[in-house]
Amino acid sequence: MEVLVLGSGTSHGVPMIGCQCAVCTSSDPRNRRFRPSIAVRASERTILVDATPELRLQALTFGLDRVDAVLVTHTHADHIMGLDDIRRFNDLRDAEVPVYGDPSSLDDIRRIFRYVFVSTQVGGGKPRITLHDAPDRFELCGIPVRSLRVYHGRLPILAYRFGPFAYVTDVNRIPPETMDALRGLDTLMLDTVRPTPHETHFGLQEALDVIAELSPRSAYLTHLSHHYDHAATNATLPPGVELAYDGLTLRFDESE
Fold first, then answer.
1. Are 86 and 129 in contact (CB under 8 A)?
2. Which runs of consecutive H residues, i.e. helices, occur in 10-156?
3. N or C: which end of the chain has fewer CB within 10 A?
4. Alpha-carbon separation of residue 125 from 69, 90, 140, 173, 235 (angstroms)
5. Which SS3 state, helix, strand or coil, does residue 239 take?
């Protein structure tokens, strides 16, 4: 199994429009961050987690030319507004793409992308997607998947575990049952939007406290704002913890 980070930034992305700070003007490519998303690959099949507004650019930048399924964490704009770009993946495989999420997210997608689900004139194209409730446990593209409840402020959203790897973005509270489900990981990828506390995201110390309790072999921090310089922040992090960056690729033994 392989995990590709398509985007490690916040809803604003980095650099931010109109900002001239040291990170937004940095020459370090790891400080350039698309909106948050990953691709999970196994046996030549690909699961996309969230569809950001830059999905087309992410695909072109990192050679993503196949999507077999989409998992949605929640329906804030930075996580779903690239769903229309799924139509190109439909064309490449001549197949519909199933989209999984919780019932609230699926309702939002039906409303926001109404044109997808009603008859429209020929021309222009639209994504061919089918909507499915994400079970607590299921297999997708040959990968065991667990859907796990976490909280983004007061909003319940989904995190996902793929065997030895878990992706937990846009979170400021993890309930005890989900903490239990996140134990025994090889790698955890976890939200920390800025060094200081935030109303709907973990601040840095809160994220580090979760990592210390769960004790994965390694951890990567994502959903990063321009408050984090990649090299300078990494130099301060505990062993086994690093900032994620766009294009980061992690590989796992599928037998784990």
1. yes
2. 55-62, 77-80, 86-93, 103-112
3. C
4. 19, 10, 27, 40, 47
5. coil
Q: 81-102 pLDDT, tens per residue?
A: 999 999 999 999 999 999 999 9
Is the separation of the CB atoms in 15 and 34 below 8 Å? no
Q: At what angle do helices 55-62 and 86-93 cross, to 10 degrees?
A: 50
Taking only the tens place, the pLDDT of each residue in 191-223 is 999 999 999 999 999 999 999 999 999 999 999
C-alpha closest to that of 172 among 192, 146, 194:
192
Q: Are residues 245 and 190 in contact, defined by beta-carbon separation less than 8 angstroms?
A: no
pLDDT tens for each residue of 234-255: 999 999 999 999 999 999 985 5
Q: Residue 24 contacts by C-beta under 8 Å, 6 or more apart in sequence?
A: 14, 15, 16, 31, 226
- The whole-angstrom separation of Cα 203 and Cα 159 is 18
Which DSSP state fits 203?
B
Domains present along the chain, CATH in parentheses: 2-20+31-251 (3.60.15.10)
The identity of residue 206, as a single letter, is E
Distance (Å, rounded) from C-alpha 143 to C-alpha 45?
10
Residue from 23, 29, 6 nearest 194 by CA: 23
Helix (H) or strand (E) holding 9: none
Return d(Cα 83, Cα 116) in angstroms, integer.
Answer: 10
